């Protein structure tokens, strides 16, 4: 089974979320109001946590009425899902840029250092991210459909990078390495964000070293042919 097929299977198996926008914005002004509500929700959840963060607090932070909030979102769960989707889109964009597929021979330490630094900056810039992920996963009794789709997409992108860097690597093997690397980095960064700030740089550096040590023998097993 090819890379895209695996990602599609995982995505199809993830049930679509029940909570949606009560009314999708059709004008630019409406979209701006939705983004303002999501920005406020992110701030509220980051400060208070998901349980304590209410729609009233979100509306107040957004400078909107509760009625205006409910015009676009059916309930708090719908806001959580919309935030999770927005985070997922941002993360996919970051990986698309940072994996540097157009220059696949960049040294591993440089590649992972750039990826992990960018993801860390993203986590720090969005303090509500992990809280939202945990809440949506918890509500799903495991990983949420958003999490599953995001992981599948990221794994496919990492697998493509592996196939570029390690010509001849079997598809099944590339899939395994892609899954492990995405899960490992995500879990490690989740933990790093929970420890005191002074400890984080050392943990990030250790994570980079760990990923380099993991992928170095894989690249040695499937070396690229240099031409010149």
Please characterize this protein's 3D structure.
By secondary structure, this protein is mainly alpha-helical. It folds into two domains: 3-16 and 83-221, Orthogonal Bundle (Tetracycline Repressor, domain 2), CATH 1.10.357; 21-73, Arc Repressor Mutant, subunit A, CATH 1.10.10.60. 72% of the residues lie in helices and 0% in strands. Helix 1 runs antiparallel to helix 8. It is elongated and about 65 Å long.
Secondary-structure class: mainly alpha
Give the biggest sheet.
none
Strand content: under 5%
Report the total helices: 10
Ranges where pLDDT stays below 50 over 5 or more residues in a row are 1-20
- Second-tier CATH architecture of the largest domain: Orthogonal Bundle
Radius of gyration: 20 Å
Bin the helical content.
over 70%
Highest CATH level, the class of the largest domain = Mainly Alpha
CATH level 3 topology of the largest domain: Tetracycline Repressor, domain 2
